[in-house]
Model the fold of this input.
Amino acid sequence: MLVRHVAALAAAPTLLVLSAPAVARETPPLTPVQERARAVMTQVVQLTNTERTRAGCPALTVDGQLVTASLRQSNYMARTRLFSHVWRNGSTFADRSEEAGYEKPAGENIAWGYRTAPDVVRAWMASIGHRKNILNCEARAMGAGVAFAADGTPYYTQVFGWE
Done:
């Protein structure tokens, strides 16, 4: 039996300042796992925005810095098998967002074990805290990331932003 878990975290709007220099890099081709992850997260964004527009909220734009923060969280959970908003070193979603260059993070949803994007979005929408993050009409941006543990278990993250 596959156990599925979800968790939500929200933060009061605060101004967090961090500047990060832009670095130009050549992008290598995606591996099949990366292509699968990209397709899943594209669908998560689409389904999240469908839920928001149904509720009368504006669609979220995808922010690259929030994608980076989301991917860091998903990779950490998949690598360590620690399902938590807070890393062992005390790092929070706000810290990871700041490190990625995003100044106003709003909240984070995490989940693991769901095999499809519709499954994970349905689970988030069935949870009061996750639903609140998704349907926060004041949020304007999001990043999403998924990483797969060595055994193929997916770990999902959404990070929402105020700007």
User: Anything to note?
Assistant: Confidence is low (pLDDT under 50) at residues 7-22. The domain at 36-161 is CATH 3.40.33.10 (Pathogenesis-related Protein p14a).
